[in-house]
Amino acid sequence: MYGRLSASATIHIYKNPATIFRPINSLSIPHPSGPTSIRLKSNTVRFVFILCYIGAVVKSSIRNFTVEDDQAKRNPGRPRSEQARAAILTTALELLERVGFGELTIEAVATRAGVGKTTIYRWWPSKAVLVADAFMSSVVRETRFPDTGSVQEDIRAQMQRLAIIFRGSRGRILRSLIGGGQSDPELIEAFRNRWLLPRRAEALTILQRAVDRGQLPPDLDKNMLLDTLYGALYFRLLVGHGPLSAAYIDAVCDAVMQGVLLKSARH
Q1: Kindly report the CA angle at 171 between 182 and 260, in degrees rounded to 5?
Q2: Whether the Cβ atoms of residue 120 and residue 111 lie closer than 8 Å to each other
Q3: Is residue 32 scored above 60 in pLDDT?
Q4: CATH code assigned to 139-266
Q5: Which regions of the chain carry the CATH code 1.10.10.60?
Q6: pLDDT tens for residues 208-254?
Q7: CA nearest 201: which of 230, 223, 221, 228?
Q8: Domain ranges in the chain with CATH number 1.10.357.10
Q9: Exposure string for 51-79, b = 16+ CB within 10 A, e = fewer
Q10: Displacement of CA 6 from its chain's centroid (Å)
Q11: Cα separation, 145 vs 79, whole angstroms
């Protein structure tokens, strides 16, 4: 009866809502079939424009809500990143135990962890670094040194915890990493940087604390002491000629530390 409002008229009203409340007597709207225009009465025009404006606002609000909701699902933030990282490390360790380092692939880890390969490479530059981190993250809390007040007991407790790890499935994983590293420079470097050196740095701090307390001599060769203590554990882990029992750990710790403490007492 009154013709149809053009799209341009609707957009104009949406962008300029004040138009609705401007006093008008009539409005000329181009007829879709030609140059003829149709005159609409003011009340009708205002009513139609209000309906158009409300419809446009509602549609825009729904669209914005949907976009924000989709973005929230796609970008949930740090908790999702931490969950993905934990899943990758856990999966890498499981596959490492199952198929070994040589057969493990980034593609398999990504598929099983439910992430993309680019996500893995964003945090780890290579497979070697990934597996070294996976092993380290699984044992780091169990291998920290206590502070009992006695350096000998601190070392004994930490060595006993490490021996428990070496006797289990993670010991087999570590043995395969060290063995594989003999022919893979990238793997052995990742093992040193991600596992060995951080553990040694912590142990050196414990020994220095004992020196500061007067329990160990200031001229102590700390690196040699650590090699003597922990070399015995790694030797049995790799060669397997004897058990890594609690009694063996006690015997090694007592023999080495009592010799050092005796030398300290003489000075």
Answers
A1: 85
A2: no
A3: no
A4: 1.10.357.10
A5: 78-135
A6: 999 999 999 999 999 999 999 999 999 999 999 999 999 999 999 99
A7: 223
A8: 139-266
A9: ebbeebeeeeeeeeeeeeeeeeeeeeeee
A10: 54
A11: 30
Model confidence over 137-191: pLDDT tens digits?
Answer: 999 889 999 999 999 999 999 999 999 999 999 999 999 899 989 999 999 999 9
Determine the residue type at 148. Answer: T
Helices (H), the chain: 7-15, 42-74, 78-103, 106-113, 117-123, 127-139, 151-167, 169-181, 185-191, 197-212, 222-239, 246-266
CATH dotted code for 78-135: 1.10.10.60
As to burial, measured by CB atoms within 10 angstroms (0-12 exposed, 13-18 middle, 19+ buried), residue 1 is exposed
Compute the distance between CA of residue 213 and CA of residue 211 in angstroms, rounded to an integer: 5
Share of the chain above pLDDT 70, in %: 68
